[in-house]
Specification:
The chain has 88 residues and is mostly helical. It is 72% helix and 0% strand. The chain is built from five helices and no strands. Helix 1 (6-23) runs antiparallel to helix 4 (54-70). The chain is elongated and about 40 Å long. It starts with 5 loop residues before the first helix and ends in a 6-residue tail after the last helix. It is a multi-pass membrane protein.
Length: 88
């Protein structure tokens, strides 16, 4: 498998950032980045608490979405696609 390019990093950064801001409570932005475990944790915590945890998980998703969008493409590629940093 080849290493991701800056163009791939940019498209994933935008998709994950927007989804984190809009649907952060469901953890969909984690699935876009390939973080299945983290995405399932966010999704299931929202579902199993009947939405009570959605407030906390939504804030986490909002913060992560903003962080993703404010990083340069190079930083995003290095941090989230090559080093696989799962949280913040």
């Amino acid at each position: 498998m080849s290493e991701p390019t800056l163009q791939e990093a940019n498209s994933k950064k935008i998709a994950a950032g927007v989804l984190g801001i809009l649907l952060g409570g469901l953890g969909i932005h984690k699935f876009v980045l390939g973080y299945s475990t983290e995405g399932l944790i966010m999704l299931l915590s929202t579902l199993f608490t009947c939405g009570v945890a959605a407030v906390v998980v939504g804030v986490i998703g909002l913060i992560e979405g903003i962080i993703y969008l404010t990083k340069s493409d190079e930083e995003f590629l290095q941090t989230y696609m090559l080093n696989k940093k799962g949280w913040f």
